[in-house]
Task: inverse folding
C-alpha cells in the first residue's frame, strides 16, 4: 500500500515488478545491466515505449537511478532502497545462514572436546575437510538422482495421449539439452499453455535461484499432467 500505487499506472506497475524480479537475479542483486532498452523490453515482454515511460516515472519518483560501467560500457539501473522490496524470507536469509554456521561450529568444538577427553586429539582442519568431502559426495549423489530421473524424459513419451500436448511437437533427447531448454521445451509443447519464451525463461531463472534444491523438470511434468486432468485451469493464469 505504498506510494507506487498512485505514482505508476497499472501497466507501469507490471513493468516495475518485472524490473524488481530481474534485479534479484543480478550479481550483485539490486541492479540491472543492459545496453539497449530493447533488451529490457524483451525480458519484460513489453513495448519499448512503455519501458521508456516507466523508467522515466521511476526515476522521477526516485525509485531508480542510473550509472554507466566504464569497463564494459554497459548502462546500469540501480534499484533505490533495494532491501525494502525484499520478502521476509530473503531478508532473513543471511541470519539463517549465520545460525547454521554457528551450529556447525558448536558441533565441531563439542566433538573436539569429547575426543580430547578420551585421549584422541582431533585436528580441526581435518574435520573441515571431512565435512566438505561429505557435502561434495551428497551433491554428487543428488546430481546422479536428478540425471536418472530426467534421463529418458520426452514430452511425447509422457503425454502423447494428453489433449494439452501438441502432436506436432517433435520429441527431444534431454541428455543433449540443458535443464532450461528441457523446461522451455516442455511448456512449449503443452498445447493450450500460453507459452511466452521471455516470461517462461524469467520464470525458470527465478525458480532455480529461489528454490535450488527442487527437480524442476519433474515438477513441470507433474504440473502438465495435472493440467491434462484439469484443462479449465489453463483458462485462468497458469
Result:
Amino acid at each position: 500500500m505504498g506510494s507506487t500505487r498512485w505514482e505508476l499506472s497499472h501497466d507501469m506497475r507490471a513493468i516495475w515488478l518485472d524490473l524488481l524480479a530481474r534485479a534479484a537475479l543480478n550479481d550483485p542483486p539490486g541492479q540491472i545491466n543492459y545496453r539497449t532498452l530493447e533488451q529490457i523490453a524483451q525480458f519484460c515482454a513489453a513495448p519499448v515505449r512503455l519501458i521508456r515511460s516507466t523508467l522515466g516515472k521511476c526515476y522521477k519518483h526516485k525509485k531508480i537511478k542510473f550509472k554507466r560501467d566504464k569497463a564494459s560500457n554497459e548502462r546500469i539501473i540501480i534499484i533505490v532502497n533495494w532491501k525494502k522490496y525484499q520478502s521476509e524470507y530473503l531478508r532473513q536469509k543471511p541470519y539463517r545462514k549465520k545460525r547454521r554456521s554457528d551450529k556447525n561450529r558448536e558441533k565441531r568444538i563439542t566433538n573436539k572436546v569429547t575426543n580430547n577427553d578420551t585421549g584422541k586429539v582431533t585436528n580441526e582442519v581435518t574435520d573441515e575437510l571431512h565435512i566438505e568431502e561429505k557435502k561434495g559426495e551428497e551433491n554428487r549423489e543428488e546430481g546422479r538422482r536428478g540425471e536418472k530421473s530426467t534421463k529418458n524424459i520426452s514430452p511425447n513419451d509422457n503425454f502423447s495421449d494428453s489433449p494439452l500436448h501438441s502432436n506436432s511437437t517433435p520429441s527431444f533427447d534431454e541428455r543433449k539439452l540443458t535443464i532450461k531448454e528441457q523446461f522451455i521445451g516442455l511448456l512449449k509443447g503443452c498445447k493450450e499453455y500460453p507459452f511466452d519464451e521471455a516470461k517462461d525463461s524469467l520464470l525458470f531463472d527465478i525458480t532455480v535461484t529461489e528454490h535450488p534444491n527442487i527437480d524442476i523438470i519433474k515438477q513441470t511434468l507433474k504440473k502438465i499432467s495435472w493440467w491434462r486432468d484439469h484443462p479449465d485451469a489453463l483458462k485462468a493464469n497458469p
Notes: The chain has three domains: 4-85, 88-150, 155-228. The beta strands are 31-34, 64-69, 74-79. Residues 80 and 181 are 34 Å apart (CA to CA).
